[in-house]
Amino acid sequence: xxxxxxxxxxxxxxxxxxxxxxxxxxxxxxxxxxxxxxxxxxxxxxxxxxxxxxxxxxxxxxxxxxxxxxxxxxxxxxxxxxxxxxxxxxxxxxxxxxxxxxxxxxxxxxxxxxxxxxxxxxxxxxxxxxxxxxxxxxxxxxxxxxxxxxxxxxxxxxxxxxxxxxxxxxxxxxxxxxxxxxxxxxxxxxxxxxxxxxxxxxxxxxxxxxxxxxxxxxxxxxxxxxxxxxxxxxxxxxxxxxxxxxxxxxxxxxxxxxxxxxxxxxxxxxxxxxxxxxxxxxxxxxxxxxxxxxxxxxxxxxxxxxxxxxxxxxxxxxxxxxxx
Length: 324
Known about the structure:
By secondary structure, the chain is mainly α. It has helices at residues 11-27, 37-54, 61-68, 77-91, 101-112, 142-158, 163-177, 184-199, 208-214, 216-229, 233-249, 260-269, 276-282, 288-302, and strands at residues 128-131, 134-138, 305-307, 320-322.
């Protein structure tokens, strides 16, 4: 008989799914809006900062932005390494299949590279989740981890449950199994993001994890309640509430700048890097002063585009490209 995780679909869960689905419909066009590039970058940084902060990393959003841009950061080397790993992992998100154990191991290798010796391998010893000096959860024995994870992946691949429920159940079951020696929290959150983004790509940029961090105590409480009840419904409800909040925060109102000139410029740059002359030609413009004032400067100031040679702004070799 195939494995079936224990969970109940409560009226609250049904209501939350309906609300989230409605808001996702309104947000769907954001994936095609060029002026949302900066918001996506900001939300990705918020996601990384939130997920790492839950695990005790003290880097701020500004510091993680500096790490992303290759700038020096004064902070503990381990925390900088964690940020670098997370940036790479989220950039590679679209390369992994959510129901693949091999992909999970590769992601763990990426996320924990240089932090633990057995990055990319299931744990070989028993582990417990501690609260102070008290063990609040003893994970299954190490010799069962591989089979338990394969059962969970099989369920994920074959379940016809709504993706919002499937991803939340997987997240809870993953944390219950605790398959790795370290990095289980950030991996569980990363994998739920992957599952959801394969359903709706916009989830790759919703700052759900930053909201989990804000509600960190409730996050752990929901995990414990689900374990006590042998039913992941409390955890599902908690996560769906955070997703709903993320949808609200990422509504179009948070990006009021919608100048048509900037949108035209960004649309053109989707073809690749271009010089000022190439951009003006592509936009059918002849007035260099007007181009800089109405197109170039607003896009640069808003962070939608960047120079290829930021240290030499007047260089004849200067080109422009979309921001990461």
